[in-house]
Amino acid sequence: MTTTFDSLGLAEPLLRALKAEKYEKPTPIQVQTIPLLIEGRDLLGVAETGTGKTAAFALPILHRLSNQTGPRRPNAPKALILAPTRELASQIGERLRAYGRQLNLRTTVIFGGVGQGQQVKALKAGVDILVATPGRLLDLCSQRHLRLDDVSILVLDEADRMLDMGFIHDVRKIVGFCNKERQSLLFSATMPTPIAKLANDILRDPVRVDVAPVKIAVERIDQRVYFVGSKDKRALLGDLLKDPAMGRVIVFTRTKRGADKVCRNLGQAGISADALHGNKGQNARVRALDAFRSGKVRALVATDIAARGIDVPGISHVINYELPNEPESYVHRIGRTARAGAGGAAVSFCDLAERPYLKAIEKLMKAQVEVAEHDLAETREEAMAREAVERVAGKGNGKRRNRHRGRRPNGQAQAAAGKTAGRKPTGRKSNNALRQPGASL
Ligand code: AMP
Question: Which atom of ligand 1 approaches the CA of 53 most closely?
């Protein structure tokens, strides 16, 4: 029997809002957590964006606050949600407003990088639910625009990202300001030791819910990897994007500078692109996201942190221009293309230096990524990698035979279109040698 939202115990106005959102049934994390959170239990949620976790905490918060009587006090929210990035905070705020549209509850979002005037004004007018990034929150607390002793529900979202971004001390400080008699929820896609410790310190007898994101994402996403020299990535990207099936694409780089460079290159190749990373001001980030959402811009070039929590529907492809050095980030990245049950496609470029990253990713996913063929000439670094593998595998004399030299740009478009045209790209023979048991680089 499938569980319905009606059976989870949510208040009628929330059920109506969910109908308006066209949510037909709760996702697994929602089924598991909503009834317990309504009861007031603490929660440790090992889950990431894309699983429906926002609604899993937003709906019970709205439900519980809607039952609370008592006036709204200025500068003293009753629920606090901490998020690592402005994008994620804004998205959570937007969801809370959507789900709570039939309720008389006020939500405000605060983050840095913009003037504080409007935020201070909103806090003063009184808010029920505050969504915030840690830095600005502490700033406003120290200026006495905000007090947290009324906070009876606290959510730490994407706690591992907050750790990565160096917010962990700020987070602990903020937790210390909140009401001791509170309900606490902590969500994290991964559980590094400092986060496990934080969870242990702040949660009381929590329910633990694990949603296996890796498996979900991997199953639904068509993944390919191209072995390509670092200098050839630019040409390969340009060629792939000749395929109109790549309608709305996020291109990931490891660094902000890398993102700017790829964005420039795409612009020069006549492909509309925008970059999204932490050095961009708030307005530029909002503009970039809006242009991408509306389809004005076809490619968004982003770093991992900036892209966290971005929820843009209809992303046709994720391209890993550079593979991430943390395998979990790969899963986060490719998850952008398969939102709420949809499928998607992810294409990765892997140069010689990145091969260990690919190995780590495959180990995490417990699956190999299919190798796709490109027609760019073999670069020196690729030849070195292949020869090393062939030496270890004890085959060949290290010379490449029948190698097509020179570029055939359309070849990549065909390979990329393979999925949509119902064809599978063939494995690349020389690089498949890398899959030989015992082969190492
Ligand atoms: P999240 O993991 O919270 O970022 O949610 C991912 C996406 O799934 C968002 O676009 C939500 O609006 C959507 N979503 C969440 N719960 C449901 C549901 N029960 N049915 C359909 N879509 C949902």
Answer: 3
Q: How far is the CA of 50 from the centre of ligand 1 (A)?
A: 7
What is the distance in A from the centroid of ligand 1 to the CA of 168?
27
206 and 330 in contact (C-beta within 8 Å)?
A: no
- Domain-located, residue 356: yes
Question: Per the structure block, which two tokens stand in for 133?
Answer: 């990034």
Q: What pairs with residue 86 in β-bridges?
A: none
Q: Which two tokens stand for residue 108?
A: 């405000």
Could you list the pLDDT tens digit for every one of the 441 residues in the chain?
Answer: 578 999 999 999 999 999 999 999 999 899 999 999 999 999 999 987 778 999 999 999 999 999 988 889 999 999 999 999 998 999 999 999 999 999 999 999 999 999 999 999 999 999 999 999 999 999 999 999 999 999 999 999 999 889 888 899 999 999 999 999 999 999 998 888 899 999 999 999 999 998 855 454 577 789 999 999 999 999 999 999 999 989 899 999 999 999 999 999 999 999 999 998 877 777 788 788 889 988 999 999 999 877 766 667 788 899 999 999 988 889 888 888 866 555 689 999 999 999 999 999 999 888 899 999 887 776 666 677 777 767 766 654 444 332 323 333 333 333 343 333 332 333 333 333 333 222 222
Is there a single domain that holds both residue 56 and residue 149? yes
Q: How far is CA 112 from CA 160, 281, 309, in A?
A: 20, 10, 17
If asked whether residues 260 and 323 sit together in one domain, one would say yes
Ligand 1 atom showing the smallest separation from residue 313 Cα: 10
> From atom 10 of ligand 1, which residue's Cα is the shortest distance away?
311
Question: Which range marks the domain in which residue 372 is found?
Answer: 215-381
- Calculate how far, in angstroms, residue 187's C-alpha sits from the geometric centre of ligand 1: 15
Are 201 and 233 in a shared domain? Answer: no
What does the alpha-carbon distance between residue 349 and residue 237 come to, in Å, rounded to a whole number? 9
User: Ligand 1: residues within 6 Å at CB?
Assistant: 23, 26-27, 30, 49-55, 311, 339-340
